[in-house]
Amino acid sequence: AKEPVRVLVTGAAGQIGYALVPMIARGVMLGTDQPVILHMLDIPPAAEALNGVKMELVDAAFPLLKGVVATTDAVEACTGVNIAVMVGGFPRKEGMERKDVMSKNVSIYKAQASALEQHAAPNCKVLVVANPANTNALILKEFAPSIPAKNITCLTRLDHNRALGQISEKLNVQVSDVKNVIIWGNHSSSQYPDVNHATVNTAAGEKPVRELVKDDAWLNGEFITTVQQRGAAIIKARKLSSALSAASSACDHIRDWVLGTPEGTWVSMGVYSDGSYNVPAGLIYSFPVTCRNGEWTIVQGTDAILYPMSFLSPIAFCF
Ligand code: NAX
């Protein structure tokens, strides 16, 4: 039998955490043959709720779940973890300026970065979900200099999956037949969802999305704004922000990173820029990537089609 993999979820008492931990325990993230030990971290005011989540994990009797650590101590939470999904953070509240949220998150991510750096398993893979996701990932990277930059990523897979979902709805095709959309930039409304290389698997072979949709006005307008604004639309409808889709996308992100992307398919990940596509090196930026042997590689040559450059504004780099 395989050795259990230790997976940390921070902010585990929150709504994404509540959707995410059962998925991990069911094998959605790492495979149905991979035992896991869940490490859950939250802050003291949420300790009782966190313990309730632990009780439910026990009650669900997941065969793959070999242990649960539920704690408010970052060092205990980070010790020996192979995968870290950073969902906890300080949310922007009414009346707060971005810089106020930023300084709160700097101190949170600084402390958690050093706990991970000192106590996680070697080669621990980190996924930052908490907003501002790209910035939090960069802060974590800055304060954990011994963790290789390639091991620190942020979640834009939800935006990627939202784009696949919109195309599938528009064309009335299975979402599993749509692939190779790209999310460029930040997990924020400044992102650029790009369908210029996306295809649909049809009875007559793979066809470009643009050829099938036959509606450039929709693809260049409403499609982009729908994907960019989807988070706000979910809040409006549910009175709560996206949780099950965020959790599911976090599983997709880690699964593809660890187990590899299917042949001929790329996915979007916020990764440390090497300067590809003239995105300044050193930013955490969403690119199309393929994954093999636990490592991502930025897909090159997808810029042959011109896309608006507004997403490269300096503001986009901050949020
Ligand atoms: P919740 O407020 O339900 O949960 C957050 C949890 O984090 C709470 O239990 C809180 O106590 C905990 N927490 C706060 N500070 C902490 C710290 N220092 N250490 C550990 N835990 C801490 O938010 P939820 O809806 O679960 O969203 C979590 C984060 O995901 C938010 O920052 C949100 O903006 C972000 N999102 C990111 C997405 C992405 O695609 N990258 C999409 C969904 C989501 O909006």
TrEMBL record:
Q: Which Gene3D superfamilies match?
A: Lactate dehydrogenase/glycoside hydrolase, family 4, C-terminal, NAD(P)-binding Rossmann-like Domain
Positions that bind NAD(+): G11, A12, A13, G14, Q15, I16, G17, D42, N105, V129, A130, N131
Molecular function GO terms recorded: L-malate dehydrogenase (NAD+) activity
InterPro entries for the chain: L-lactate/malate_DH, Lactate/malate_DH_C, Lactate/malate_DH_N, Lactate_DH/Glyco_Ohase_4_C, Malate_DH_AS, Malate_DH_NAD-dep_euk, Malate_DH_type2, NAD(P)-bd_dom_sf
Give start and end of each Lactate/malate dehydrogenase N-terminal domain: 5-152
Q: Which residues are recorded as binding substrate?
A: R92, R98, N131, R162
Return the protein name.
Answer: Malate dehydrogenase
Q: Which organism is it from?
A: Citrus sinensis (Sweet orange)
